[in-house]
TrEMBL record:
GO terms for molecular function: histone deacetylase activity; hydrolase activity. It comes from Enterovibrio norvegicus FF-454. Keywords: Hydrolase. This is Histone deacetylase. Belongs to the histone deacetylase family. It comes from the Bacteria. GO terms for biological process: epigenetic regulation of gene expression.
Amino acid sequence: MLPLVYHDIYSNFPLPDGHRYPLQKYQLLKTFIEQQQWPVQSFEPTVLCSDKLKAIHHVDYVDALISGNLPLVKMRRIGFPWTPALIQRSLTSLGGTTLTVDKAIEHGVAIHLTGGYHHAHFDFGSGFCLFNDLILAANHALSYPEIEKVLIVDCDVHQGDGTATLAQDRSDIVTLSVHCDKNFPSRKPESDIDLPMPIGTDSDKYLREFIPCLTLALAQHQPDMVIYDAGVDIHTDDELGYMSVCQSGIAQRDNAVFEACKAHQIPVAAVIGGGYRTEQTALVPLHAELVRAALNTYYPHTEI
Ligand SMILES: [Zn+2]
Protein backbone atom coordinates (compact mmCIF):
# COMPACT_ATOMS: atom_id res chain seq x y z
CA MET A 1 0.00 0.00 0.00
CA LEU A 2 1.32 3.40 -1.01
CA PRO A 3 1.75 5.66 2.05
CA LEU A 4 -0.04 9.01 1.84
CA VAL A 5 0.17 11.70 4.51
CA TYR A 6 -2.84 13.93 5.02
CA HIS A 7 -4.72 15.89 7.68
CA ASP A 8 -8.15 17.54 7.44
CA ILE A 9 -6.65 20.80 8.68
CA TYR A 10 -4.87 21.21 5.30
CA SER A 11 -8.09 22.59 3.80
CA ASN A 12 -9.39 24.07 7.00
CA PHE A 13 -8.12 27.46 8.05
CA PRO A 14 -9.82 30.84 7.55
CA LEU A 15 -8.91 32.98 4.54
CA PRO A 16 -10.49 36.19 3.26
CA ASP A 17 -13.02 35.79 0.42
CA GLY A 18 -11.38 35.71 -2.98
CA HIS A 19 -7.94 34.78 -1.61
CA ARG A 20 -5.88 33.15 -4.35
CA TYR A 21 -4.58 30.27 -2.20
CA PRO A 22 -6.29 27.05 -3.34
CA LEU A 23 -7.50 26.05 0.10
CA GLN A 24 -10.00 23.38 -0.98
CA LYS A 25 -7.77 21.39 -3.30
CA TYR A 26 -6.26 19.24 -0.54
CA GLN A 27 -9.62 17.96 0.65
CA LEU A 28 -10.82 17.53 -2.94
CA LEU A 29 -7.72 15.53 -3.82
CA LYS A 30 -8.02 13.29 -0.77
CA THR A 31 -11.68 12.58 -1.56
CA PHE A 32 -10.86 11.84 -5.21
CA ILE A 33 -8.14 9.36 -4.22
CA GLU A 34 -10.53 7.60 -1.82
CA GLN A 35 -13.11 7.29 -4.58
CA GLN A 36 -10.60 5.54 -6.86
CA GLN A 37 -10.12 2.79 -4.27
CA TRP A 38 -6.43 2.74 -5.05
CA PRO A 39 -4.13 0.68 -2.77
CA VAL A 40 -3.07 3.54 -0.55
CA GLN A 41 -2.74 3.90 3.20
CA SER A 42 -3.26 7.28 4.86
CA PHE A 43 -1.27 8.53 7.82
CA GLU A 44 -2.24 11.55 9.89
CA PRO A 45 0.56 13.82 11.12
CA THR A 46 0.87 15.61 14.43
CA VAL A 47 2.11 19.16 15.03
CA LEU A 48 5.85 19.64 14.52
CA CYS A 49 7.89 20.80 17.51
CA SER A 50 9.10 24.32 16.69
CA ASP A 51 12.64 23.45 17.86
CA LYS A 52 13.15 21.58 14.58
CA LEU A 53 12.41 24.81 12.72
CA LYS A 54 15.05 26.67 14.71
CA ALA A 55 17.69 24.42 13.14
CA ILE A 56 16.70 25.92 9.77
CA HIS A 57 15.26 29.38 10.39
CA HIS A 58 16.28 32.33 12.54
CA VAL A 59 15.09 31.73 16.12
CA ASP A 60 13.49 35.20 16.32
CA TYR A 61 11.59 34.65 13.07
CA VAL A 62 10.22 31.30 14.28
CA ASP A 63 9.16 32.73 17.65
CA ALA A 64 7.62 35.90 16.18
CA LEU A 65 5.64 34.09 13.50
CA ILE A 66 4.32 31.38 15.82
CA SER A 67 3.32 33.88 18.52
CA GLY A 68 1.66 36.31 16.11
CA ASN A 69 4.23 39.04 16.63
CA LEU A 70 5.70 39.18 13.14
CA PRO A 71 5.45 42.73 11.72
CA LEU A 72 2.50 43.21 9.36
CA VAL A 73 4.77 44.00 6.44
CA LYS A 74 6.41 40.58 6.84
CA MET A 75 3.01 38.85 7.07
CA ARG A 76 2.01 40.61 3.85
CA ARG A 77 5.06 39.17 2.12
CA ILE A 78 3.90 35.69 3.19
CA GLY A 79 0.45 36.48 1.84
CA PHE A 80 -1.76 35.18 4.66
CA PRO A 81 -3.42 37.04 7.53
CA TRP A 82 -2.07 35.73 10.85
CA THR A 83 -4.45 33.49 12.78
CA PRO A 84 -3.81 30.74 15.36
CA ALA A 85 -5.39 28.33 12.84
CA LEU A 86 -2.82 29.30 10.20
CA ILE A 87 0.00 28.40 12.60
CA GLN A 88 -1.70 25.16 13.61
CA ARG A 89 -2.14 24.25 9.94
CA SER A 90 1.45 25.14 9.12
CA LEU A 91 2.98 23.18 12.01
CA THR A 92 0.75 20.19 11.25
CA SER A 93 1.77 20.18 7.59
CA LEU A 94 5.43 20.38 8.67
CA GLY A 95 4.83 17.40 10.94
CA GLY A 96 3.39 15.79 7.81
CA THR A 97 6.62 16.47 5.98
CA THR A 98 8.79 14.64 8.50
CA LEU A 99 6.25 11.78 8.64
CA THR A 100 6.40 11.54 4.83
CA VAL A 101 10.19 11.22 5.00
CA ASP A 102 9.88 8.45 7.62
CA LYS A 103 7.37 6.56 5.48
CA ALA A 104 9.48 7.02 2.33
CA ILE A 105 12.54 5.57 4.05
CA GLU A 106 10.45 2.65 5.31
CA HIS A 107 8.58 1.93 2.04
CA GLY A 108 10.77 3.47 -0.69
CA VAL A 109 8.18 6.10 -1.54
CA ALA A 110 5.60 8.26 0.23
CA ILE A 111 3.46 11.23 -0.80
CA HIS A 112 2.44 14.26 1.21
CA LEU A 113 -0.89 15.69 0.05
CA THR A 114 0.31 19.25 0.64
CA GLY A 115 3.76 20.87 0.95
CA GLY A 116 6.38 22.53 -1.21
CA TYR A 117 7.01 25.73 0.78
CA HIS A 118 10.12 26.63 -1.17
CA HIS A 119 9.76 30.44 -0.88
CA ALA A 120 10.46 30.40 2.88
CA HIS A 121 13.92 31.84 3.64
CA PHE A 122 16.11 31.92 6.76
CA ASP A 123 14.42 34.89 8.42
CA PHE A 124 11.38 35.67 6.29
CA GLY A 125 8.60 33.92 4.42
CA SER A 126 7.05 34.78 1.07
CA GLY A 127 4.65 33.48 -1.58
CA PHE A 128 2.34 31.56 0.83
CA CYS A 129 5.35 29.86 2.47
CA LEU A 130 5.96 30.28 6.23
CA PHE A 131 8.61 27.65 6.92
CA ASN A 132 10.64 25.66 4.38
CA ASP A 133 9.38 22.08 4.47
CA LEU A 134 11.78 20.89 1.75
CA ILE A 135 14.85 21.81 3.81
CA LEU A 136 13.11 20.44 6.92
CA ALA A 137 12.53 17.16 5.03
CA ALA A 138 16.17 17.02 3.97
CA ASN A 139 17.39 17.70 7.51
CA HIS A 140 15.08 15.06 8.90
CA ALA A 141 16.28 12.52 6.34
CA LEU A 142 19.89 13.34 7.21
CA SER A 143 19.19 12.38 10.83
CA TYR A 144 19.09 8.77 9.61
CA PRO A 145 22.60 7.26 9.77
CA GLU A 146 22.31 5.68 6.32
CA ILE A 147 21.50 9.02 4.64
CA GLU A 148 24.42 11.32 3.99
CA LYS A 149 23.23 13.34 1.01
CA VAL A 150 19.79 14.52 -0.09
CA LEU A 151 18.74 15.80 -3.51
CA ILE A 152 15.78 18.20 -3.61
CA VAL A 153 14.10 18.03 -7.03
CA ASP A 154 11.84 21.07 -7.29
CA CYS A 155 9.58 20.96 -10.36
CA ASP A 156 7.14 23.65 -9.22
CA VAL A 157 6.88 26.35 -11.90
CA HIS A 158 8.27 28.93 -9.46
CA GLN A 159 11.96 28.86 -8.67
CA GLY A 160 12.90 27.42 -5.26
CA ASP A 161 14.57 30.60 -3.97
CA GLY A 162 14.22 29.93 -0.24
CA THR A 163 15.48 26.39 -0.64
CA ALA A 164 18.44 27.61 -2.69
CA THR A 165 19.56 30.13 -0.06
CA LEU A 166 18.98 27.79 2.90
CA ALA A 167 21.07 25.05 1.24
CA GLN A 168 23.77 27.25 -0.27
CA ASP A 169 26.45 26.36 2.30
CA ARG A 170 25.38 22.74 2.66
CA SER A 171 27.30 19.97 0.94
CA ASP A 172 24.81 17.37 2.22
CA ILE A 173 21.81 18.99 0.47
CA VAL A 174 21.81 19.40 -3.33
CA THR A 175 19.12 21.59 -4.89
CA LEU A 176 17.69 21.24 -8.39
CA SER A 177 15.05 23.71 -9.54
CA VAL A 178 13.30 23.54 -12.92
CA HIS A 179 11.07 26.57 -13.33
CA CYS A 180 9.72 29.31 -15.60
CA ASP A 181 12.42 31.94 -16.07
CA LYS A 182 10.03 34.93 -16.17
CA ASN A 183 7.92 34.04 -13.14
CA PHE A 184 7.96 34.71 -9.38
CA PRO A 185 10.34 35.18 -7.61
CA SER A 186 11.90 38.02 -9.59
CA ARG A 187 15.24 37.54 -7.83
CA LYS A 188 16.39 33.94 -8.24
CA PRO A 189 19.35 32.98 -6.03
CA GLU A 190 21.38 30.12 -7.47
CA SER A 191 20.40 26.55 -6.74
CA ASP A 192 23.10 23.90 -7.19
CA ILE A 193 21.36 23.13 -10.49
CA ASP A 194 18.91 25.57 -12.10
CA LEU A 195 17.00 24.66 -15.24
CA PRO A 196 15.07 27.76 -16.34
CA MET A 197 12.40 27.32 -19.02
CA PRO A 198 10.88 30.09 -21.15
CA ILE A 199 7.24 31.19 -21.00
CA GLY A 200 5.09 28.83 -23.07
CA THR A 201 7.35 25.77 -22.70
CA ASP A 202 5.39 22.71 -23.89
CA SER A 203 5.51 19.09 -22.69
CA ASP A 204 8.01 17.91 -25.30
CA LYS A 205 10.58 20.58 -24.55
CA TYR A 206 10.02 20.26 -20.80
CA LEU A 207 10.61 16.51 -20.73
CA ARG A 208 13.45 16.66 -23.27
CA GLU A 209 15.38 19.00 -20.97
CA PHE A 210 14.28 17.89 -17.51
CA ILE A 211 14.79 14.13 -17.75
CA PRO A 212 18.49 14.26 -18.81
CA CYS A 213 19.07 16.94 -16.17
CA LEU A 214 17.63 14.66 -13.47
CA THR A 215 19.64 11.68 -14.76
CA LEU A 216 22.85 13.73 -14.62
CA ALA A 217 22.08 15.08 -11.13
CA LEU A 218 21.54 11.57 -9.77
CA ALA A 219 24.75 10.31 -11.41
CA GLN A 220 26.89 13.26 -10.29
CA HIS A 221 25.66 13.64 -6.73
CA GLN A 222 24.58 10.08 -5.88
CA PRO A 223 22.05 11.11 -3.23
CA ASP A 224 20.75 8.68 -0.61
CA MET A 225 17.30 10.33 -0.58
CA VAL A 226 15.23 12.47 -2.95
CA ILE A 227 12.69 15.08 -1.87
CA TYR A 228 10.41 15.77 -4.85
CA ASP A 229 8.24 18.89 -5.22
CA ALA A 230 5.72 17.89 -7.90
CA GLY A 231 4.03 21.25 -8.45
CA VAL A 232 1.41 21.18 -11.21
CA ASP A 233 1.53 24.93 -11.84
CA ILE A 234 3.53 24.10 -15.00
CA HIS A 235 0.15 23.12 -16.54
CA THR A 236 -1.00 25.16 -19.53
CA ASP A 237 -4.21 26.32 -17.78
CA ASP A 238 -2.56 27.30 -14.50
CA GLU A 239 -3.38 30.87 -13.48
CA LEU A 240 0.10 31.61 -12.09
CA GLY A 241 2.23 29.41 -14.32
CA TYR A 242 2.87 30.80 -17.84
CA MET A 243 4.00 27.41 -19.12
CA SER A 244 2.19 25.04 -21.51
CA VAL A 245 2.71 21.53 -20.19
CA CYS A 246 -0.30 19.22 -20.60
CA GLN A 247 -1.65 16.65 -18.12
CA SER A 248 0.14 13.82 -19.91
CA GLY A 249 3.39 15.78 -19.67
CA ILE A 250 2.91 16.09 -15.90
CA ALA A 251 2.25 12.34 -15.68
CA GLN A 252 5.40 11.58 -17.68
CA ARG A 253 7.45 13.92 -15.49
CA ASP A 254 6.20 12.26 -12.28
CA ASN A 255 6.78 8.79 -13.72
CA ALA A 256 10.31 9.74 -14.77
CA VAL A 257 11.21 10.91 -11.26
CA PHE A 258 9.85 7.78 -9.59
CA GLU A 259 11.37 5.44 -12.20
CA ALA A 260 14.80 7.04 -11.77
CA CYS A 261 14.64 6.88 -7.97
CA LYS A 262 13.45 3.28 -8.04
CA ALA A 263 16.19 2.28 -10.51
CA HIS A 264 18.83 3.76 -8.18
CA GLN A 265 17.06 2.40 -5.06
CA ILE A 266 16.79 5.90 -3.62
CA PRO A 267 13.81 6.52 -1.32
CA VAL A 268 11.68 9.44 -2.47
CA ALA A 269 9.39 11.66 -0.40
CA ALA A 270 7.09 13.66 -2.69
CA VAL A 271 5.00 16.75 -1.94
CA ILE A 272 2.24 17.99 -4.25
CA GLY A 273 3.48 21.60 -4.53
CA GLY A 274 1.74 24.44 -6.36
CA GLY A 275 -1.28 24.46 -8.63
CA TYR A 276 -3.55 27.48 -9.00
CA ARG A 277 -6.99 27.53 -10.60
CA THR A 278 -10.09 29.44 -9.55
CA GLU A 279 -11.99 26.22 -10.27
CA GLN A 280 -10.05 24.09 -7.81
CA THR A 281 -11.65 20.80 -8.90
CA ALA A 282 -9.63 21.18 -12.14
CA LEU A 283 -6.44 20.75 -10.08
CA VAL A 284 -7.43 17.36 -8.69
CA PRO A 285 -6.68 15.15 -11.73
CA LEU A 286 -3.36 16.97 -12.19
CA HIS A 287 -2.18 16.37 -8.62
CA ALA A 288 -3.60 12.83 -8.72
CA GLU A 289 -1.09 12.00 -11.49
CA LEU A 290 1.59 11.99 -8.77
CA VAL A 291 -0.22 9.25 -6.86
CA ARG A 292 -0.94 7.34 -10.06
CA ALA A 293 2.75 7.55 -11.08
CA ALA A 294 3.89 6.24 -7.69
CA LEU A 295 1.42 3.34 -7.92
CA ASN A 296 2.50 2.55 -11.51
CA THR A 297 6.16 2.53 -10.51
CA TYR A 298 6.17 0.91 -7.09
CA TYR A 299 2.98 -1.16 -7.11
CA PRO A 300 2.77 -2.22 -10.78
CA HIS A 301 0.61 -5.29 -10.21
CA THR A 302 -2.28 -3.39 -8.69
CA GLU A 303 -5.29 -2.27 -10.71
CA ILE A 304 -5.52 1.50 -11.03
ZN1 LIG B 1 4.51 27.39 -7.61
